[in-house]
Amino acid sequence: MPTARRTAILAVLLVAAGSLAFATGAAVLDGEADTLADDRIAVQPADGPNGDYAYLNDDDEIAIDVSASNPNLRNSSFEGVNVDSRGTIDDVFTITYTADRSAEVWIEQDDAGEQGDGNLTFVHEDGSIENESNGVTLAPNESVSVGLRFDTHGAEAGGRLGADEFSIHANVTDPESETMTTADDDSDSSGPTVFVTGSGAERSLSASDVDGGDTVRFGTDGMPIDRSNVTLDGLELEGVSVERVEMTAGGSPEAFPDAGDLEAPRDPIPLGYLALAYDFDPESVGSMHLRFSIDRDALGDADPEDVTVFRRSDDGEADGDWEPRETAPLDEEVVEMRDLPADRVHFVATTDDFSTFAVAVHTDRIGVEEAEIADEALETGVGTTVTATVENAGGAAGERTLAFTADGETLESETASLAPGESTTVTFPVGFDEDGAYDLAVDGTSAGTLLVGDGTDSSDRGAQGGAGGGDRSDTGGDGSGNDAGESDSGSGASDDGSASPEADAPTEEPGGFGIPELAGVTGVLAVLLGWLAVIRRMPRS
C-alpha cells in the first residue's frame, strides 16, 4: 500500500480574550485544494464559518491559522483562543478521497518541532484522528471533516497551542490488490450550521439549515453541572425535522426551584441538575443524547453502572415524577479511541423528552431491620442464638460487615452481600460462663436482654447489697465490721441528710422467746414435777 504524506503549517495563538464561532458541516470538493497521493487525496478548507481558519498558502498547501495573522479573518478584535478554556472548533478543513478505491487517512503533529502550551488534538465527529490507530477509512469520493479540540488550562496569553507543523498521512490502496468498495456519496450536503455561546454553567445552542432527519451535535465544552465534578460535554439531537433549533442549557449542583429535589425509589444520591429550555416542538426531535462525564475522584467507590440520569416529568403537577433514562458509561476502548480525558468517567444518556434532568448515583443501603434472641434466660454455659433480618434498601448491590455485640463489646462479625431490594437473615450463636444480664445487639439494633444464671453479676450483687438485700456478712463494704446498710453516722439518713424510707418505717423488736428458751422452761417444769411426786410418797406423821 503506497503511503503519502503532506506537512502543513499550524498556528494557533493564545490570547487573554477572544471569540470563536463553532459550526459543523461536510466539505464539498468544488474549489482549489492541496492534493497528495497523485491527486487522489484532496485537502481544502471546509464550508461554513470555521473553514476560514484554514486556507491555501502561496505554495497551495493547507495552512491552519487561528490568529490575527489569518488573512481570512477580517474581525480586527479577534486575536486567538482564550486561555484557561476548553472547546472544539468543528469542521475546519476536509480530507477527500477522489479515486475509485479506498484510503486510510490520519494526522500527526510534528514531534520534532517545538511544542506549544496547552493541548491540541485534531478530531472528527467520532473522536481523534491523530495517529495511525485512529485513522479513518475513506471510500471513493468520501470526505472526512476535521476540527480542532483544545485545552488551554495552564497556558499563558501570547503563546501558541500545539506544534509548528502537522502531517497528513494517507495509506492509498493498491488498485491491483484491493477489491472494489462502495459508499453513499453524501458530499453534496453541507449539513446544519451550529453555534454554541456562553460560559460558566450556561450555554446557548442554535442550529440552522437543518435538513429533515439530520443529527445536530452541540459541543458544550465541559459545561459545569457540579463544578468540575460533573460536566455536560455534548448534546446530540437525532431525527430533527425542523429547519432551526434553539436551546439553552444550565447546570447546578443544587435543585432548580421549579423542579424540586430528586425523589425516586431507593433514594439515589443527586450529583447535579441540568435544565434545558427550548422553543421548538419536542415532537420534531426523534431522540436526544446527553454526553456527560464525572471526575473519578468525585465518583469515589461508586460503580459507574450505578449512575443514572432522571428526567422530571413536565406534566405541570407539583408532585411530578422523576423518571430514569437509559444511561451507560462509555467503554474504555471508546474513551481511548476518542482521546477523551482518562481521569474522568464518560457517560451517555438517551431520552425522547426535554425537561429538567438530574444526574444521580445509586448506592447500597444495607441495614438491620430487626434482631431477636431465641431465649431470654439461660443457665451458665448453655448456648442460644440471635437472628437478624438484613435488607438492602438502596439501588446498588453492596456488602456490609455486621457486628454482634454484648453490652457494646463486639463478640463476632458477619459480612452480608445483597443486591438492590434483597434481604437475608444472619444468625449468631451466643452463650456465657458467668451470671449476668447481657444487652445484645446486631449492628446497633437491639436483640433484647439475655439473663444468664440468676441474672446478676458482681456489680449487680454489689448494688443489691448496698440496698440492704442479698447475703449478709460480718464485715460491711467499708471494712468497719458493721452490717451492710449501717454506719457510725446512723442508717436512718440518706446521702442528702433526709430521713430514708427505712428510718420512717416501724422498728420490729425481736420477741426474745425461741426454741432454746422453750427447752429450758420444759426442763424446769420436769424437775418441779419430779419433786412433787417424791413429796407425795413421803410418810405422814
Please tag this protein with its features.
six-stranded mixed beta sheet, eleven-stranded antiparallel beta sheet, mainly beta, elongated, 541 residues, 5 helices, single chain
Topology (SSEs and partners):
Blueprint: E1 3-12, E2 14-15, E3 34-36, E4 41-45, E5 54-56, E6 62-66, E7 81-82, E8 86-97, E9 103-109, E10 119-124, E11 127-128, E12 136-138, E13 143-151, E14 165-172, E15 193-197, E16 202-208, E17 214-226, E18 230-240, E19 245-252, E20 269-278, E21 287-295, H1 296-299, E22 307-312, E23 322-329, H2 332-337, E24 344-351, E25 356-361, E26 366-373, E27 377-378, E28 383-392, E29 398-406, E30 409-418, E31 423-431, E32 436-442, E33 445-452, H3 458-466, H4 501-504, H5 515-537
Parallel strand pairs: 1-6, 2-7, 27-33
Antiparallel strand pairs: 1-14, 3-4, 4-8, 5-6, 8-13, 9-12, 9-14, 10-11, 10-13, 15-16, 16-19, 17-18, 18-21, 19-20, 20-25, 21-24, 22-23, 22-25, 23-24, 26-28, 28-31, 29-30, 29-32, 32-33
Keywords: Membrane, Transmembrane, Transmembrane helix
Biased composition (Low complexity): 483-504
Organism: Halorubrum glutamatedens
Give the radius of gyration.
Answer: 45 Å
Q: How do the strands of the widest beta sheet line up side by side?
A: 15-16-19-20-25-22-23-24-21-18-17
Count of alpha/pi helices: 5
Helix content percent band: under 10%
Keywords: Membrane, Transmembrane, Transmembrane helix
InterPro entries: CARDB (IPR011635), DUF1102 (IPR009482), Ig-like_fold (IPR013783)
Protein name: CARDB domain-containing protein
